[in-house]
Amino acid sequence: MEKDAVEEVVSETANLKETVVTAEDVAEAAVFLRSDENKYVSGMNVVIDGGYSVTNPVLGRNIRKFFGDL
């Protein structure tokens, strides 16, 4: 899929409306993890998805809506 099409699918079903994740969002998280700002952070996974994978109960339905049965 083209970038714009993927962004449309994610935006339509996302928890954070009118927000699209960018490469810069991921880079900023990496910079934070490398910085002294995180001196007390250890042993966690950083999921940069705006809560999509945890709180979106219709994820499966939306995937089928846009992509059919894979």
UniProtKB/TrEMBL annotation:
Domain of life: Eukaryota
Residue spans crossing the bilayer: none
Pfam families attached to this UniProt entry: adh_short_C2
InterPro entries (UniProt xref): NAD(P)-bd_dom_sf, SDR_fam
Family stated for the protein in its record: Belongs to the short-chain dehydrogenases/reductases (SDR) family.
PANTHER family, sorted: SHORT-CHAIN DEHYDROGENASE REDUCTASE, SHORT-CHAIN DEHYDROGENASE_REDUCTASE FAMILY PROTEIN
Name of the protein in question: Uncharacterized protein
Organism in which the protein naturally occurs: Ficus carica (Common fig)
